[in-house]
Amino acid sequence: MVEKKYIAIAEKIRTDIDRGVFPEGSKIPPIRKLAEIYGVNPQTVNKATAYLASLGYLDARRGAGSTVRKPTAVSVRRRVPMLVDRSRARLLDDLDDIANFHGKDIYLGYLMETAVRGDASGFMIYDRDEDAAPEGFAEEMAGAWGVIVQGSLPECRSAVLAAMDIPTVLINRKPTQVGGRFASVLIPMDRLKEMANYLASLGHRRFLFALSDRFELNAEFEARMSAFRCGLDGWGLDEDAVVPFVYTEASARHADLLASEVTAGRTAAVAYNDVSALGLYGLAARIGLDLPRDLSIVGFDDIALAQIASPPLTTIHVDRRDLVRKAFAALDELASGSAPLRIEIEVPTTLSLRQSAFRAP
Fold first, then answer.
1. Other CB atoms closer than 10 Å to residue 240's CB: what's the count?
2. In the prediction, which pLDDT does 318 show?
3. Which domains does the chain have, with CATH numbers?
4. Residue 58: phi, psi to the nearest 5?
5. How far apart are CA 157 and CA 126, in angstroms?
């Protein structure tokens, strides 16, 4: 769901209105003429002018053309796009995919929050490996009041946002850009240490740290695994007490690998997130494991499916709606400050102890 092209064209028309190219009280050129000026089809221009009319920049009347007007403060909606890493973007479209539950609360929360605040929303997709910001990115960002970022934003795009002094909130990431106004809303790792102690208290001594290959093996995975290992420091375990286990769901080969790990004494699996935990349920079923007696499995996120899984999943609860609310609160704080500005906010987490963790066999 890339931000619609008509919004970019609307921003160009609005910029020309602000520059006096189309003075207040004058009529803008006909749709077909505007299509020639901006190099798009008439349908896109028609949507763009309707959008500007909704913001109060145009008075559009059937058969009379569109007249430029100065919008009142009440009629102007602040534009707050969400930039989404392409690897996460499929969650916006694939509603039948279980992985959608991993991120949909953030996207729905964002849409709800912008609606409540009266802000204009829109999703824009980027590639995390970009070496240079794509042509037109600065134009797309022109007029944005603030930006929410879900994923690892490339340095090149961060530099553009900093140069344009657009308040930017990163979800569970820290900025690397010098200058600009940036905030981070972070999910702390402390509960992973508590989870480690909880599982160790149940007698578990050898663990898998699991990741479904639906997700990228990245720095966040390493950070969570490291936090879990730190929680075991007082238990006198050897270095290979925790090993990574990256798997493909419904894979017979990975099911056999899981069986080998359990036979070798791995009695608990800690998953990077709940989707990865529930994927392990499927692998365990393929090889006839009795959960949680043969293998304890715990997750991270507390998505809706965690509560109704069989057995219900022990996990770390993250209130993602609260995360979104804190992101917008940080945006408000950034908007009232001046660059360079950095803000960090943590979202509280809690252990949700259910029936998927049991005493070590």
1. 8
2. 93
3. 5-68 (1.10.10.10), 82-187+321-349 (3.40.50.2300), 190-318 (3.40.50.2300)
4. -130, 145
5. 9
Backbone angles phi, psi at 205, to 5 degrees: -130, -15
Cis link prior to 340 (omega < 30° from 0)? Answer: yes
State the Cα–Cα distance between residues 128 and 80, nearest whole angstrom: 20
Under-50 pLDDT residues of the chain: 1-3, 73-75, 94-100
Rounded to whole angstroms, how far apart are CA atoms 3 and 114? 15
Residues 297 and 280 sit within 8 Å (Cβ to Cβ)? yes
Amino acid at site 2: V
Find out whether the peptide bond into 361 is cis, omega within 30 degrees of 0.
no
pTM more than 0.70? yes
Nearest to 169 by CA among 191, 144, 192: 144
H helical segments located in the chain: 5-18, 31-38, 42-55, 86-93, 100-117, 137-141, 155-163, 190-201, 219-231, 252-263, 274-286, 304-308, 320-335
| E strand or H helix that includes residue 247 | strand 242-247
Residue with tokens 């800690």: 270
